[in-house]
């Protein structure tokens, strides 16, 4: 009886899993970018959920339950295509987070700027590139030092910071935004059923909308929990459906709340969320709450950064200890954290943040780094979708607690939709959006192309330069790939695969 109770306590319900996924994905900082579309933003959110969010969730669940050994995306891609592309995949996860930090922290710096009593001064301060740079670096290094203190330290900050800095502000934004609308105030967007469909004749609309894919990134992080769900083949898709619906609702309602208050021509990617709170609090007669909310949002940014500093760096550490990075990068401090990897990440974040001083405006730098983040993350997702399809053929008998229904055709449909959607967004991400001033279009595209080539080339050079002594013989918990055990090449169907694999049981 006692053992049964322990098992039940260790299970995750449908609603709990749905909430885990919603919290992992939802962020408020990107809403102003989509508020420019007004009602048509609803179309983009739903479209991206169908062609990206749901495929990512289902494919990641199958991969996580079929190959649950250490390594995550490195393990999945490596089983299909070998360690070279696997190293590219895990490096893309780590480097895209590195590029993402300046954009997320720009939002945090703007939040801090709006904590002052003078709105005009606050807005001018938030546009000062040197103020933004100083705050970006200060918050990032504080977050890094917290993460270096170990799991207990950063998990507390992530937990309470997420509640105070994301959940509560999100509820306030939606409630006040729609209260403003239903109180009879004139919305700053055009309403009508015809406004739900985007103007596809304007190519720039599609370009900026490609960034919405990043809104849904991260759902794969909780895929491993599918093994703890009762009747996973039935309940996991239900949980994903609830999570997708909940996430879309939060994004749609939050975006419309901003669009109701801020005229389209005045929307700023970095300031509009804070200006919306200022205007709504003034309308409600509680202007004193605006600086408090700005502080909450800044805390939310810190919490998010702490979690993302620790997570991908820890994942890269696992791969490093498997012999794929030099011993220097395998070093951990007394708390077991990947200190050398985190410090290198800090130097890269510092260098990228200087871009804010070079480009013509904070908003231009924000857009370029946001698009670069999308591009790098999509490289990882393209490899993940391709690996999932390939593994249906190279390891067909591998036990999977959750398997996308419909046989190989079902996987081709779900994985294919995700792959094509990701590839389309990847291509569009290189095209400058017409709605935002980014300086010279040629420089914009050039920066994105050059940085993408550099970041994708780095893991390829590292793999080519790897040495046998990088592998620490004391590390015994990094399992070999299945194809290594069966003495075949990655992705090749072994005749012995007629017998079910037992490695993961």
UniProtKB/TrEMBL annotation:
<feature type="transmembrane region" description="Helical">
    <location>
        <begin position="444"/>
        <end position="463"/>
    </location>
</feature>
<dbReference type="InterPro" id="IPR022520">
    <property type="entry name" value="Glu/GABA_antiporter_put"/>
</dbReference>
<dbReference type="InterPro" id="IPR050367">
    <property type="entry name" value="APC_superfamily"/>
</dbReference>
<keyword id="KW-1133">Transmembrane helix</keyword>
<keyword id="KW-0813">Transport</keyword>
<feature type="transmembrane region" description="Helical">
    <location>
        <begin position="160"/>
        <end position="183"/>
    </location>
</feature>
<feature type="transmembrane region" description="Helical">
    <location>
        <begin position="12"/>
        <end position="30"/>
    </location>
</feature>
<feature type="transmembrane region" description="Helical">
    <location>
        <begin position="130"/>
        <end position="148"/>
    </location>
</feature>
<feature type="transmembrane region" description="Helical">
    <location>
        <begin position="85"/>
        <end position="110"/>
    </location>
</feature>
<dbReference type="InterPro" id="IPR002293">
    <property type="entry name" value="AA/rel_permease1"/>
</dbReference>
<feature type="transmembrane region" description="Helical">
    <location>
        <begin position="288"/>
        <end position="320"/>
    </location>
</feature>
<dbReference type="GO" id="GO:0022857">
    <property type="term" value="F:transmembrane transporter activity"/>
</dbReference>
<keyword id="KW-0812">Transmembrane</keyword>
<feature type="transmembrane region" description="Helical">
    <location>
        <begin position="341"/>
        <end position="362"/>
    </location>
</feature>
<feature type="transmembrane region" description="Helical">
    <location>
        <begin position="203"/>
        <end position="224"/>
    </location>
</feature>
<dbReference type="GO" id="GO:0005886">
    <property type="term" value="C:plasma membrane"/>
</dbReference>
<feature type="transmembrane region" description="Helical">
    <location>
        <begin position="236"/>
        <end position="262"/>
    </location>
</feature>
<dbReference type="Pfam" id="PF13520">
    <property type="entry name" value="AA_permease_2"/>
</dbReference>
<protein>
    <submittedName>
        <fullName>Amino acid permease</fullName>
    </submittedName>
</protein>
<feature type="transmembrane region" description="Helical">
    <location>
        <begin position="42"/>
        <end position="64"/>
    </location>
</feature>
<keyword id="KW-1003">Cell membrane</keyword>
<feature type="transmembrane region" description="Helical">
    <location>
        <begin position="368"/>
        <end position="389"/>
    </location>
</feature>
<keyword id="KW-0472">Membrane</keyword>
<feature type="transmembrane region" description="Helical">
    <location>
        <begin position="410"/>
        <end position="432"/>
    </location>
</feature>
